[in-house]
Amino acid sequence: MDQEKREFNEKFMELLYSIRKFHMLSHKNVSPLQDTSRGQGRILAMLRLKSKITAKDLSYILGIRQQSLNETLQKLEKEGYIVRTPIP
């Protein structure tokens, strides 16, 4: 039984690797900002859906630590992709 589980796990991990490799190759020529499944692109995609949202709510929705989100938002703001305004 343990041998069967081990073989199943190995095949499953090979499948996951193949899926990830396919995903990466299919996004090879795409800007990181256009890849809505990762990093900055994911944040920009969410902001496109809901432009007025707090960083706290955005971090909760995306499942990102608020500190990591703030660092990424600072980069996006510095590059001119977003404008952040404080809530009065």
Overview of the structural elements:
With 88 residues, the chain is mostly helical. It has helices spanning 2-26, 39-49, 55-62, 66-78. The longest helix is centred in the first third of the chain and has 25 residues, at 2-26.
What is this entry, summarized?
With 88 residues, the protein is an all-alpha fold.
Give me the secondary-structure topology.
Layout: H1 2-26, H2 39-49, H3 55-62, H4 66-78
Q: What radius of gyration results from the CA coordinates?
A: 18 Å
The general outline is elongated
> Which stretches are poorly predicted, pLDDT < 50 over at least 5 residues?
none
Task: Measure the end-to-end span.
Answer: 62 Å
Please write the string of helix (H) and strand (E) elements: HHHH
Helix/strand-derived category reads mainly alpha
Helix content: 55-70%
Oligomer: single chain
Number of strands: 0
Strand content: under 5%
Q: How many helices in DSSP terms?
A: 4
For the largest beta-sheet, the strand count, sense and barrel status come to: none
> What is the residue-averaged pLDDT?
86
Kindly list the characteristics that best describe this protein.
65% helix, mainly alpha, 88 residues
